[in-house]
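Hello, quick one for you while I still have it in my head. No rush at all, and the record is pasted right below.
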Amino acid sequence: MTDCGCDKAKQDLEEYLRNELRSEDAADIREHLAHCDGCSDEAHLNVVLTEVVQRACRETAPETLRAEVLLRIRSIQATH
C-alpha cells in the first residue's frame, strides 16, 4: 500500500467513485476512506449529490418550458 492521505484521497475521489482508478490506487483510497471520517463523509456527499443530479436529469421538462427553450434557440440561430 502507498501512503494515501487526505490530499491524495480527495484528489482522486471523483475517479474512485466512477471506478476509473487502477485497482491498486482504488484499494488505497478504499482503505483510507475506511479509516478517515472526514474523507468518508465527503465521499458519501459526492455519491448522494451524483444520485440527485442523475434523478433530476431523468425527469422531463414541462412542455411549456421545452417550447420556450426551443423558441429561444431558434431565435438565436436566426440571428447568426
The chain has a mean pLDDT of 92.
